[in-house]
Amino acid sequence: MNQIVNMIMRRVMGRLINKGVDFGFHQASKIGKGKNGATQQPAVSPEEETRREHAGREQGKQSRQMLKNMRRLNRF
Known about the structure:
This protein is an all-alpha fold. About 80% of the residues lie in helices and about 0% in strands.
C-alpha cells in the first residue's frame, strides 16, 4: 500500500513541478520580449555597464542553483 501511495505522489509531484517550470519559462519569455520589440538601448556609463555585467553573472549563478535544486526535487 505504501508503495502505491509513493508512486502516486511521485507522479503528482513531477507533474506539478513540470507545470511550475513551464509557467516560469513562459513568464520569463514574456519579460524578455519586452513591451515593444524595436526599442533602442540608450548609451550607458562604464559604471552602469559593470553593474549590469555583475548582475548578469549573479543571475546566472542563481539560475544554476535553481536547476540543481530542480534536479534534486525530480529524484523522487
